[in-house]
Write a sequence for this structure.
């Protein structure tokens, strides 16, 4: 069993760290909002700072909201970099900028440390069930070293490539999911305003080239008008923000991702920041002055 | 066995009519480009005009390129309406405007005739194999009457609703397929320019919420650079044209469909009218000055 640090104990991080403790690992914990009692009760050790976590653990896992939080946890005065030493490994499971990830990994590499980016999908349900999808970037050696930890938290674990490629894959995932939802939204608003029954249209399209996980799951939500998350629009806005800012830095045009972001913005303007992302259909409905149904 | 007219004997219509003849139906045939010899050899009767077809057959099937062709076949001086009589049924299997379809059906209704719109997907391969997907609009009675003919040409046959709803469903299908392809294109150009291996990204995304028939089939084409059709961009441009013109008439906004059409236009401008529709990725590649790979 190994000494594992875990920084960021929110809705996702808490159950993930719990799986590691339950498997017998020695956990060193830190979170902006304090360490949850059940984790220390189970044997986890609360630390005063990311620096202290990095001093005590060999592998330091991060699960925080966004790029600036990762940067702060790693490089602030009492951050991970201030406590880490040669041969240790940082594993960032947050969903953040791929380009920033490469910079962070380079700085830690100068200290003799490995870096694996390993963003997840599957949400709170997957975190609790230990069934997250984990998309990893890093050297084969570093990946092999932390794989046993990943296997306690997830099921579908892929090493996509070198450092940053896990984050790239996560962004690609969020682009496709957002645009597939928007596609189903356009099709159902069109069909419904034309007088067709959207559920019959959806049924007719399943199994053909239009079929997708999104047509199945999010299409049904649009028709049944169930917009409880699921995955909140404000979180998808963050992810498309990463897509668009990284695309701009790299010189890539993402025209439909940009439009999807504007439609999410319209949802937020109409009180929908916490709707499930299938609620993007409501922005299209406003534009068409017509509700699917 | 019944007397069936078939107007429009191109790449799709010829094998479809062939299945009806093979099943023992009496076929009355007309096509702008002449009736193919093998169909008359098999027992089909060539007719001089759509009018003559409508005089001789009880059910008149159309399989022509676009809305104006259907209008001409039905309502020109020597068209179907000039020869048809009460109790007969027109079945339009072309992919045309849903709104125009409702007008055509109304005019034929005034002559005491049924109308079923029944556009297909599955292409030349499906037409030859008799495995087309057929999306139908019309009354239950009219649908029941022509279903035995559909079963000779297709496998997945759905009555979506009343007249026009088959065409609405086909347009919805083409919107989703185009936008799902565009989504995979944006994700793969992003991932590739960021330095990740697009095939590893695609593999990692299969099975999750980003999974779709398009990620499977068209994603692979983008990575393997195989842009032979498949389904030609110029045909998808026609279908998105139907989507956008009907949307405008109905008062529906389709922002990403509009952008996808512009990207197809860019493909055509670069010699790609006959590329497979997965070639939309090339328009994104031009914008990013980077080829997926």
């Amino acid at each position: 069993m190994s000494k594992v640090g875990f920084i960021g104990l929110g809705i996702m991080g808490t159950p993930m760290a719990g799986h590691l403790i339950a498997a017998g690992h020695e956990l060193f914990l830190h979170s902006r909002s304090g360490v949850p009692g059940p984790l220390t009760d189970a044997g986890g050790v609360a630390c005063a700072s990311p620096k202290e976590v990095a001093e005590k653990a060999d592998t330091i896992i991060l699960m925080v909201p966004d790029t600036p939080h990762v940067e702060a946890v790693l490089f602030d005065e009492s951050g991970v970099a201030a406590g880490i030493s040669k041969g240790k490994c940082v594993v960032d499971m947050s969903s953040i900028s791929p380009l920033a990830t490469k910079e962070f990994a380079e700085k830690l590499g100068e200290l003799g440390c490995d870096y694996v980016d390993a963003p997840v999908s599957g949400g709170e349900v997957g975190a609790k069930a230990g069934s997250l999808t984990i998309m990893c970037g890093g050297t084969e050696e570093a990946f092999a070293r932390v794989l046993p930890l990943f296997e306690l938290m997830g099921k579908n674990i892929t090493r996509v490539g070198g450092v940053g490629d896990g984050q790239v894959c996560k962004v690609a995932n969020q682009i496709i999911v957002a645009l597939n939802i928007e596609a189903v939204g356009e099709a159902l608003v069109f069909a419904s305003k034309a007088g067709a029954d959207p559920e019959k249209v959806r049924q007719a399209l399943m199994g053909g080239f239009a079929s997708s996980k999104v047509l199945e799951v999010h299409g049904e939500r649009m028709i049944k008008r169930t917009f409880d998350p699921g995955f909140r629009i404000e979180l998808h806005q963050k992810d498309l923000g990463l897509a668009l800012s990284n695309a701009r830095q790299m010189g890539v045009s993402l025209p439909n991702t940009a439009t999807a972001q504007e439609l999410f913005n319209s949802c937020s303007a109409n009180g929908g920041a916490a709707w499930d992302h299938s609620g993007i259909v409501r922005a299209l409905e406003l534009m068409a002055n017509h509700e699917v149904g």
User: Anything to note?
Assistant: The first strand of chain B starts at residue 3 and ends at 7. Strands of chain B lie at 3-7, 26-30, 45-46, 59-62, 89-92, 114-117, 120-121, 132-137, 154-161. Chain B touches chain A through 70 residues (CB under 8 Å). The CA atoms of residues 9 and 34 of chain B lie 8 Å apart.
